[in-house]
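Support case: magnesium ion complex. Customer-provided input:
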Amino acid sequence: MDRRKLLKNLGLGAVGSAFAFSNDSMAAGLNKETKGLPPLKITNVKAIATQPYGTELVVVKVETNEPGLYGVGCATFRQRAHTVVSAVNDYLAPLCVGKVADNIEDVWQMTYQNSYWRNGPVLNNALSGLDQALWDIKGKRAGMPVYQLLGGKCKFAVDTYAHAGAGTKEEVVENVLEYMEQGYRHIRIQLGGYGSTALSGEPDFKRNGFGHKDDNVYSPTLYLRETPKLFEYVREKCGEDVELLHDVHERVQPMDAINLCKELEQYRPFFIEDPFSPENMGWFELLRKQTSVPIAMGELFNNPHEWVEPISNRWYDFIRAHISQIGGITPAMKLARLAEWFNVKTAWHGPGDTSPVGHAANAHIDMAVWNFGIQEAAKIIRSPDDRVLSIFPGMPWVENGFMHVNDAPGLGVEFNEKEAAKFPIREVQLNNWTQLRKNDGTPVRP
Ligand code: MG
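Agent response - structure generated as follows:
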């Protein structure tokens, strides 16, 4: 339904004169006429998986009883993509068909509690696909981009950071300088895969026939020794005009993480991310007493218990939640509002395993919330290839380090199902970056 027709049905007259009505007459019009407005019903919910590059993406499409009016949402959990597809098609679809698409909060709450056991990554992603699609539909119904529905613009665009990780510190510096030239003001520096420097040669666990052939090795000692040297080198070569970010990726022991943060303080990092795994949340109080380095936390969070108490105790400075992993835009807005009152800023996870629809959801929230901190922008957003662009026309884009969304109603991203079908996801999913062990074979938790 176009905006003109919607306003007419709401009793607000023609678009041009709608806002000339007094508040009282608007309220009267709404009270009198809303009953007569036919509710928009959900007629279909389906998950579509596609893999135009190395990562399995899952998108949920919600159709309505208004011909041509549909929404899309991100439900990408690449490590368990097939399971999310089943959660959407086998459980959410029968539950949601016939519900009123306008009532996002009601649909979210009823779907959230329907499984009884909740707050897990698979069901949260399914819920996110549905929730984001309903916000997309509401935007299209209102004739507004989603950020307008969330309160309107609070900034002209979304500042992002790029990844300058590489195998050596010289290569990292090269990458940082290149990104600075492209206009990025915030850059993440890492040595090797998420800070790990693989032990040279074959690890002892492999020589002794332990583990699986695809397992990788991680040396916390090398990582802890090399990371401060990397910071020192980058500051020396790239100067003070760039903000440096770093991800510990939860892989070291709590005391080692605390020592590392203290050591990195002198290089003025913008933030140090995920110093502890979610299993080690109890160490934050000690960390805060030991160092003033800004901390970002939470890309692995799924459950509100993981952020309500820590935020109210001001245990970290940036909340890094992955929006599809916490259930969509609806819970993310509540989280952002909670964080505002404790001066915790948003830094939503924005990796390659988020679909362009999910990146758009990140950006619409970023545009509207005051306590925005920074947005991670994966390569698929910074420099998308033709496959991605053909599947997701209208996706956000980055210029001079700023991410932009278009002003089309809704999330502004289309989803070309025909193109997506050309790139089906793998039957078997492997994920060997989480198959990580110490030299003696002990599993390392990411
Ligand atoms: Mg991270």
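The first helix runs from residue 3 to 9.

Case will auto-close in a few days if no follow-up is received.
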